[in-house]
Fold 2-isopropylmalate synthase.
Amino acid sequence: MVSSDNRVIIFDTTLRDGEQSPGASMSLDEKLRVAHALAELKVDVIEAGFAIASNGDFRSVNEIAKQIKGPTICSLARATKGDIERAGEALVPAENKRIHTFISTSPLHMKYKLQMEPERVLEKVSESVAFARRFTDDVEWSAEDGSRTEHDFLCRCVEAAIDAGATTINIPDTVGYTTPGEYAAIMTMLFNRVPNIDKAILSVHCHNDLGLAVANSLAAVQAGARQIECTINGLGERAGNAALEEILMALQTRNDVMPYSTGLDSTKIMNASRLVSAVSGFVVQPNKAIVGANAFAHESGIHQDGYLKHAETYEIMKPQSIGLNKSSLVMGKHSGRHAFKEKLKELGFAEMGDNAIQDAFDRFKELADKKKEVYDDDIVALVDDGLRDN
Ligand code: KIV
Ligand code: ZN
């Protein structure tokens, strides 16, 4: 049965899947800073790492478990006793802890990667989940490559995981292959066919290889999933994971058509985005949705004029809702007189007469043809020059 509860759990995996991006590894101190930012953002679950992966990863999970209060702290573990024990050990100090254990379920992964028969995989699902329950009541099980798994087998694995005690069932789109309609249909199929599905939260975890990670996650929520796994700035292997900030702002901005809530404080997004970019070394592209430098910037004269008359003409979100002070009017060759006058006022030239403004605007247009962006200092200089010349 599809849940009637519209609260969506946000599971952040910046420190685990995000950190798996080549070149994005973070020090313990950096991870702690990110974990604090995630707690301020009020994410529900922080996947702090993969405790068995290295001593450094163990320490990070352990320190985050000690220091971070509020969110549930989670460690990843393969379906082996050693992995699960290490995860359990690292999580001991956590206020609330979750073990996230996974195994591949697609024909391709079982045959070539695991080299294991499906029946053995099924046994391992039950064994790993039951073993993880010895360390915590909060156990998540993931079907790696779930979106490319045969439906009958996926149903059997999900049922077995729930019977063994899994409280969250995650169906990753590990290689970013699915589409919104197909992924939603997998959720619906699970709700219709797995008899004990009501005993667990259905979760989604999407990679962005086709640029569909956010769309797929939202489609799955509309089909009844109630946990989304995502990362700040969409950090993650290959093309990355679903971007937390895009999911949150889509749910907030289009609540009319997607009536789901999260417990997050969106005003903390910019802070988290800048921190993750700084510590991972992954620069955010300027036109990235929500957190890119141009996401709240207007350059064309028509847009600037409309925006100055009423911000909602060209803005669907308020910059303050993500923690920015204000939108910016970028002065360039497409800018018009209205925005230029506003810029002059902002720079302290409120008393200029019409002729002086026209003169400055002409000089500005000449300069703008030669430069990609005209900075505030350039405008101050050209107004000063004009005042001197007259
Ligand atoms: O993408 C994936 O399948 C994963 C799992 C380990 C959850 O990251
Ligand atoms: Zn992943």
